[in-house]
Each structure stands twice: as structure tokens, then as C-alpha cells.
Sequence to fold (790 residues):
Amino acid sequence: MRAFPARSRLTAALLLLVVSGVSAQTRYLIRGRITDGATGRGLGNVSVVDKKLKVGTLSDSTGAYSLRVLPGLYSLTFSRVGYYSRSVPADVSRADEVVNVTLNPDIRQLEEVNVTGRAPDANVSAAQMSVVKLDMKNLRNIPVVFGEVDILKVLTLQPGVSTVGEGAGGFNVRGGRTDQNLVLVDGAPLFNTSHLLGLLSNLNADAIQDVTLYKGGIPAAYGGRLSSLLLMNTRTGETDRIGVKGGIGLITSRLLVQGPVTKNKKLTFLAAGRIAYPSLLLGLFPAPTNRNRASFYDLNARITYQFTPNSQLTATLYRSFDTFKFPQDTLYTTQSTLLTARYSRRLNKHLSVNLTGTQSDYRFYLDGQGTANTYRYRSTIRQRDARLDWQWVPQPAHRVEFGGTLTAYSLLPGAIHPTGDGSNVVAQTLSTEQAREWAGYLSDEWTPVRGLSVQAGVRYVRFTNIGPGVGYRYAGGIPRSRESITDTLFYGSGEPVVGYGGWEPRMTVRVSLTSAGSVKFSYHRTRQFLHLISNTTAISPVDFWKLSDPLVRPSVADQWAVGYFRNFQDNKYETSVEVYRKEMSHLVEYRNGATLLLNPALDADLLPAQGRAYGVEISLQKTRGLLTGLLAYTYARTLARVRTPYVHDRINGGAWYASTFDRPHNLTVATQWKWSRGWTFGTNFVYTSGRPTTYPDGTYRLNGTKVLDYSQRNADRIPDYHRLDVSFTKDGRRTPGQRRYSNWSVSFYNVYARKNPYSIYFQRVNTTTRAFRLAVFGTIIPSLSWNFNY
Fold:
């Protein structure tokens, strides 16, 4: 290659310097100010970009921006979350250009500007697995029956969570029974979670700040149930002003008031109430349903005093009351009362402590109001807890939690006494049951290296059933029955009857494969000393609780789970696949023909059972954009087995059989589509396999009368269940920070009016046996509600 002479190289360098200087001198400035179309104020953090030439900047807090560019024609796009984007041309061929722009709020994206307290990639990066966190802001856009926001019904849309049927109380998690879920409201256990015999949950969503469901990997700080932990905390009152919100619907109305009490704003309050009037709708149904009467109310209250920025005292109250009356027959009454006091203090930047005391009362009354034999039946349970929890964070990648709990149980399984004149009911009161429990725990969450996180802990629990009480000793070598009682045992007040205890290890490991994908493994063991005694498929008011005793041992569960978690498009799409297996022992089952209510020798009719649950949960969720939604599919099996030395007590011959809540296939498709002018269109589609049931397989004659014969428990299934719901919600807000607004919600439950069977029952009609189908909601149910915020 020929080299240029030195003189030529010098000339070229000078020419390049001149051209560069000319180019630098001919750069121009695009500047201006961006304002909010609703308030006229400057709008900060707006992106100003020419996508073709790939130049851009952000506006400052006053809305001002500036961008130095080469001469030419530009097309600037102004955008910010919560506002409509706008493109504006700019010509800077000869001089600087001033471009002022006004952006109008886009109500469809208002939810995206709220801080949720959850990292965008939490499902991948967090140590926990098998956890569901509800976004409380979007619950009102989800179609539900009667138009009332229902936290528990929304949870049943998640993979691994189901119910035994429409309108049923309680919920089932990964093959667990309804009583195997520990539901805590501000740390206090809630024993009854339903209004209207299971049609609605008894939690006012307006008063709830956050909802977290642990399907597996339960933290070591908690125990007492086999299947899941549901944590719910009420809102803290606002500190800047008095705020009011509420709503009016077809069967309920709500009101919430919150704000500061003192001028220094250290003392804040929140009070929320909800009242129902379903009798108005019941009157529209055909007889005899139109003669039913029902009502309920629930109250939430919270007071918070901020001593210093590092310490505060909180007290909360929850109260619910239900009545349901069948015409000229029976009146059901339930009431729950929860009290909580908590003192929290941050001792230094590494150490903090919480001291909590709670009391939970649940009472049930059944009043027989027939023409004769009037009576009142009641059962109660009270639980008191004291907790001390410490948290030590020596470094950001290392967190240690430890503490302990003391618990006292007191319950009345059942009592009945006559009411009115001439009642032939004989008064009877079962012995009260009492117990004491203490537990200590230690857990450590540690990230030793990047991409690996370990959360390991252990809990030790000791349970003691104490007097006063009465027990029975049964003859050996034959099945237990009233006839086989050989001795009656009496225990004095505070005398230990029997004790149980043991270690409960917990562990979760997360291994990051990429920045957007991880694999997690978890194992946990739990014990349950409190059992719900029920002879119905779903939770019913006449169910009652029983403590473990010498013949009813505590239930134990071991659960393993492994999952793969992967996010796409900057966490816009979240996917997960989890596989689990759970082994359970000493479950409570019932002998065929068992007598449960007012049975002083109940333990003679209870059988110990083994349980087994396994399945796979697949979830795809879109979290951002105008169209968001969830696609979830669960394949799950739940089996039980009763094996005793006595052939007569073996259910289905001692073989494994499907549990009542075994529903193998569960599919949920839920979407929320944000339209213009504040409208949101929501849909739910749910499909589940029919639950097991027992059909008669023959007849036999007893004293000359044909009687149906039931031999195999849960060998049949009711038809599959599927339903479509839609809703339309109009949000009246024009800006993200608008305080006063209202919205309307219209929903249609069971759009194509499918008569989904809740149960199939059989009756003898003349000389034939006929099957009858019972559907809770056999038609479309429209709802309308108006909600306000001031």
C-alpha cells in the first residue's frame, strides 16, 4: 500500500478538525415543558425519544426537558406510565426548537403506577415457593357472585386451591381438608371464614391490606395446621387526612373511615363495616325459598400509635355476626370475635422485635323453632395466643428469625337445652375440652453465593390436653363402641390428660439458572392438634372442633415440592410448574353410621386414617399491559385409607379411596382487559372434575321395607363443573393521584346458566328409586354495585 506524504497527512488532519468544529457548532437544542392535561402541573419522568434515530432524554420534576441534536427533522415520542403517549414533529434544520407538550391521563393504566411491595421478579428470585400474593387493587375487577369482592373465592382461582362445590364454605389446598388451613387476621386465628352458610367470605376486602397464602414451604414461625397458612393484615389508617370509602350493592353495603386522630399524626385509626340484606333477594325466589331469611354484618377496626420512627403499638378488632332462618323450622346463628395487640420495635439497624397477643372466639347457636320440641344448641371455641418474634439481619444476604408462642385452648363441643313451654328435648352438655401448647422456632434465610438461596428452619411444639374432663376406657380385642366401655375416667382442673410434641423441620432452596429463571425445592413437616368434626361435604354451621386426646392423636403431614420458575419480556410474563407430594397420618375419619353431634363417646366413632396427595400445578400469568390475566391448570389426586385390625371398621376393605375433595382436573382462565375511558372488562372461566360421592349399588329389605344399600365410599362422582363469569367496571378517576372518585361494577355470574350439580341424592318414589340433582346456582346471576372514595 502506498503511504501518503507527511504534508498530505497534515492537511487531512486539519481538514478533519475544521469539519468537526463546524459540526459541533451546528448542533441545535430541542427543549420545552411537559404538563399534565388534567391538573396543568409539570410532569416529571416523561420519556422523550426519537425511536428511529435512537436519541432521547427524561423530563425533570418540573416537566422541563432538553435534547441536543444534529440538524434535521425529528419525530419525538412523549410517554409515561399512566398517560397516553404522544408523537410530535420537530424541525431543527436552522435553529433551536421549542416543543411544549400536554399529556392526558390514561385511566386504563392507573394500577401500574402503584407500588405493590413485591419485586417484579419475586416469583423467580425470592427464596419462597408455593406462595400466592393477591393484588388487592385489582380484586374489584374480578367477576364474583352477587358483585361482592370475595377474597377466598379469588384464591380458589389459583392453582392448587379449590372448593368442594359452589357456595361451599372454606377452601382446600393441595388435597387438604378445610380445617387444615390456618387463617390468621392480624395474627389471630379465624375459625369461620364464611357468611350465608358459605355463599360469601366474611372478610371485607376494603379493610384488608395484603393477602398471602403459603401452599407449601410454610415459615417456621407458624404451625398448627397441615395444609396451608393464609396471612391477612388490615390496613393502617392514613396519616395525612380523613378518608372515606364504601359501596352499595344488591345484597351488601360497606363503609370505611380512616385518618389521623392527633395533630402530630402519631395516632391513626381505621374503622370499616359491612352489612347485608339478602332477604330482599330471597323474597324473589319461588316458595318455599322465598320464606327464608338471612342477614349478616362484619366490623374491622385498627388503631396505630407511632411512638418513634422505630417503634409502634397496634390494636385491632374484628367482629362478625350471621343469622339464617329456614321457614318455621331452624335459626342458625354464628359469631366471631378477634382481638389483637402488637408492639413492634426496631432496636438497631440489625435487630427488631415484635410482641403480639391475640384472642379468637367463635360461637354457634342452633335454635329449633318447630311447633314442638323447641330447643337451643350451642358450641364454642376460644383460643388465646402470646407471641415473641425476633428478626436479626447481620447483612443484606443473611436474615435470622427466632421466637416462640404460648397458646391456650378452651372449647365446648356441644350443649342442648329445651326452650319454651312443653318442649320434650332433654338437656345435655358435653364435657369441655382444654389444652395448653407452647412452641419455639428458629429460621435462617441465607444467600451464600449469587444464584443460591437457602431458607431453613425448625419448630418444636409441645401440646398437653388438660382437665377438667371425662374420658373412657374400652375393652381390648374388639372395636370401640359405647357397649365396650369398661371404665370412666375423671380429670381434675389443670390435670394433664395426655401430651404430644415433636420437631417440625422446614427448608426451601432456590437455585438461579439465569437472571430470569430458577429451580426451587421445599420440604416441611406440620402437626395439627385441633380437628373439625363434620358429617357434611363442606363446612356447615353444625360442625364443631375437637382437641387431640388419648384416643385421637394429632395429625402429621410431610410435604415435598419442586418447581421451575421462568419470566419473559422483562417480567411481563410469569410462568411456573410445581410438582408436590404430601403424606399424612392420623387423619380423622368416621365409622359408617357414626353419631357425631352430642356424642359423649365420640372417640368410639372416630377412625385413624392415612392420607396421600400429589399433583402438578402449571401457571402462566401476564402482569402488565392493557390485557392481563392468569391461565392455571392443576392435576391433583387426594386419597385416604383406613386400616384397622377389625374388618368391620375398614372403609372399602382397607384400600385407598378418593377423598371427598379429590377433583383431579382444575382449569382457570381469568382475564382483565382495560379499555378506554376507565372501563375494565373481566372474565373468569372455571372447569373442575366432579367430586367423589357415594351412590347406592343395590337394595335390601328391612322389616318388609326396601332400603338403599351403600357399600363403597366415594366410588362414584357427580358430573364435572364449569362456569363463565364476566364483569364491566367503570373507574371514575382521571388522574393517578385523584382522591375523590367513584366507580360502577356490573357482573354476570354463570353466564350460560349451567345447572352445575352440587350433589346427587336418591329417594324411593313409590316402588322405584329416583336420583335428584341439587344445584346451588342454576341460572345467570346479574349484580350491580357502586363504590366511592372521598
